[in-house]
Amino acid sequence: MKKLLNTLYVTSPDAYLSLDGENIVLLQGEQELGRLPLHNLEAVVCFGYRGVSPALMGALAEKNIGLSFLTQQGRFLARVTGPVRGNVVLRKRQYVASQDENVSVGIARNCILGKVYNCRWVLERATRDHSLQIDVERVKHASALLRNSLLEIKECNQPDKLRGYEGEAASVYFSVFNELILQQKKDFVFNGRNKRPPVDNVNAMLSFFYTLLTSMIASALETVGLDPYVGFMHTDRPGRASLALDLIEELRAVFVDRFVITMINKKIVNSKDFSKKEDGAVLINDKARRQLLTEWQNKKKEVITHPYLGEKVEWGMVPFVQAMLLSRFLRGDIEEYPPFFWK
């Protein structure tokens, strides 16, 4: 099993990254802010940047360490990767499978099953643990609708209908998402999913961490030799990591949504950590972003038992495990792609 290494998040907009031997060095003007050995890193994520030296880019690419650039608000800009890695035969099978509607529908269906199952699990967990603080009847009703949706999805073999079921299930889930916010309810009100830009505090955090998780999944896919830009549920579009967007669906609720809810309910963030621009976009400020990234790193290190493998893994390794399982299916080692059904 691949080892979980560290991700370096560079939040200072005027930091410059360079290479010194086998170390990555953070510079601010002539001042050295810090250095880290490359062998401890699996990814570098820069939020607004002055630049990265060509020597460092080359070293990161050679060592298969992902380098991503995001805006200060967390909007994805670009990823720098080295030579294509992995088995060319695997990628050929991926491309052939993406053109086979039966195979594509099977993978897409399982991704959507994982998404709806995990959304329902989050709601059921809330009714069990916080029955005195939420509208249990309302949340239970939404859970029942998701259960019925699972039955319909299992029998569906049509791509358009699958996407319709996925959209309906997401609408049901988010219709009661506000019930999961138990603290600071005046400052963290969720009235529905919005993005590009997010216009409330909750959506600002959801969008930010969905972006980070998508980047993690894209890196995991490349690590096992798959092409993150050729998907089975999301249609191909230049510049869009469609396969990463396929796999994130089953992880959104249990990885990101629960994390965001925890940050709010534990009061790790508050209303002062956000600002609103003239166009209505809500931004996370620098101090809060650093604190949230620290908590995100801690979340990634939590050990769980993978529901399919039955092995202990860190949360941060789940994207890699799912990418590995998908590659095993495409090679013909297992009969179908097993989605992440959290228990």
State the main characteristics.
343 residues, alpha/beta, 4-stranded mixed beta sheet, 10 helices, 47% helix, globular
Question: Can you describe this structure?
Answer:
It is a single chain. This protein is of the alpha/beta class and 343 residues long. It is 47% helix and 16% strand. It contains ten helices and twelve strands. A hairpin with a 2-residue loop joins strand 2 and strand 3 (23-28). Helix 3 (101-129) runs parallel beside helix 5 (159-175), helix 4 packs antiparallel against helix 5 (159-175) and helix 6 runs antiparallel to helix 8. The two termini are 22 Å apart. 39% of the residues are buried.
Query: Which class do the helix and strand fractions yield?
Result: alpha/beta
Order of helices and strands: EEEEEEHEEHHHHHHHEEHEEH
Mean pLDDT: 88
Given as residue ranges, the uncertain stretches (5+ residues, pLDDT < 50) are none
How large is the share of residues in beta strands? 15-25%
CA radius of gyration? 20 Å
Q: Name the strands of the widest sheet in spatial order.
A: 1-5-7-8
Topology summary:
Layout: E1 6-10, E2 16-20, E3 23-28, E4 31-37, E5 41-47, E6 51-52, H1 54-62, E7 66-70, E8 76-80, H2 88-98, H3 101-129, H4 136-154, H5 159-175, H6 201-224, H7 242-248, H8 252-265, E9 274-276, E10 282-284, H9 286-301, E11 303-305, E12 312-314, H10 318-331
Parallel strand pairs: 1-5, 2-6, 5-7
Antiparallel strand pairs: 2-3, 3-4, 7-8, 9-10, 11-12
In short:
The chain is of the alpha/beta class. It is built from 10 helices and 12 strands. The model has no long low-confidence stretch (mean pLDDT 88).
